[in-house]
Amino acid sequence: MTVTRTGESGGAVDTDPRRWWGLVVIALAQLMVVLDATIVNIALPSAQRDLGLSDGNRQWVITAYTLAFGGLLLLGGRVADLVGRKRTFVVGLIGFAGASALGGAAGSPGMLFGARALQGAFAAVLAPSALSLLTTTFTAPRERGKAFGIYGALAGSGSAIGFIVGGLLTQYLSWRWCLYVNVPIAVVAVAGALVLLHDRPGHAARLDVPGALLGCGGLVAIVYGFSEAESHGWTDPLVLGLFAGGVALLLAFVRWQTRAPMPLLPLHIVRDRNRGGCFLTMLLAVIGMFGLFLFMTYYLQGILGYSPLRTGLAFLPLTAAIIAGSTQISARLLQRVAPRVLMVPGTVLAAGGLVLLTRLTVTSSYASEVLPALVLMGLGMGLTFMPVFATATAGVAPQDSGVTSATVNTWQQVGGSIGTALLNTIATTSSTAYVAARLRSPADRARVVPEAVVHGYTVAIWWAAAVMLLAGLVAGLLVTAKAPRRGSPAGRPVPEPAA
Q1: What PANTHER family does the annotation carry (predicted)?
Q2: Within a 10 A sphere around the Cβ of 223, how many other Cβ atoms?
Q3: What is the pTM of this model?
Q4: Structural domain of 214
Q5: Domain check: are 115 and 220 in the same one?
Q6: Which one, out of 106, 301, 322, 442, has a CA that is 20 to 30 A from the CA of 493?
Q7: Residue 71: which CATH number?
Q8: Pairing label, strands 3-6, 12-15
């Protein structure tokens, strides 16, 4: 049932009296997608022991999800346009729940990796349709702003909730419940979607399947090359072949996008200097951040002996700092300063936090050595991410708004995939070399092996800090948008013509 009232622009708009309950359903689905990016981090050490994952392959539990999510996100948006947002939303929820149940029941590493990839694929269908439903459900400007604020707050808190819930479930039930928990959430969301959500019929849209295959195939080849470098070496023909094949596929993807009738990624979006700079800044910054999540989880549980729950709680200052940096600093200053005035200091702060973590030893204290680094890292990420999203989506034509938002998220997921694979390989390779150089007798193993593990983490974190500084350099050189002029929408930087 709908009621008609006067919109804020003066025209009559149709609104559903149950639209706020619909928002709960949409936010619940988005929360589930965001939650799964962090909840499994806490469970990973337990899953590794249970399934016998090697240190080189453990990163695929995370990478399989982020890679499928990022590689198929643009295609998922097109599917929603073609068959209808509500239908796609429900299918995405059901598929995500099924993949989660499959992962929870995994009896082998391959089954878990496959289930996580399926989760990512259905998340790529679910996330764009959720955002589109939110846009079409709330059409009045004031209500839309409120709805997006609630949606953003719930989605933004997903990482914190993921750490805590992951710790609780792993410690008191099993790591498998970090996957099973999605099933009841999805059941509630599906029931709510069928009753509360409405949608306009899908319109004519052509799926760019060749583009999806080329783009996703290229990313998989590159990430797989990073993971294989740990066991084969960086100059091994297989590793070099994977890198070369991945680059070739991505070049073919770019060429195809210039000819495709309905390209997944219209290249004029990337060619814009500010937008392209934001995409690259996001990619590089996330490479460092995702590696941090993986290493700190293993360091806190494996070296300091934290329980899964205590590990989840230990990450809360990082999440709180990200939220504070984003909502209390970036959101206020972006209305007065150019975006790169926030991005560059943000990446430098985050790099500083990473450098502090390079001093970790097997006897480091959380309060004096880990906590300050997490707070610095969180503030830096908060200062960086908010202006990246605002600048990347500013001044976009209405027909390109969806694909632009999806592209920002794609670069974020791809950065997570590459960062996890690359930094995990660097860490495990460095640890192996440390053991080979210092293990003189079996009696030394109890001392040398933990030292080697921490040494591997610190070497990888040095690389992460370097990549984070590179993100700051890219933001400083490429993102030339100016501060908003008087009368322009708040938080919408004014693009400056590229030199």
Answers
A1: BLR6921 PROTEIN (PTHR42718:SF46), MAJOR FACILITATOR SUPERFAMILY MULTIDRUG TRANSPORTER MFSC (PTHR42718)
A2: 26
A3: 0.78
A4: 209-260
A5: no
A6: 322
A7: 1.20.1250.20
A8: antiparallel
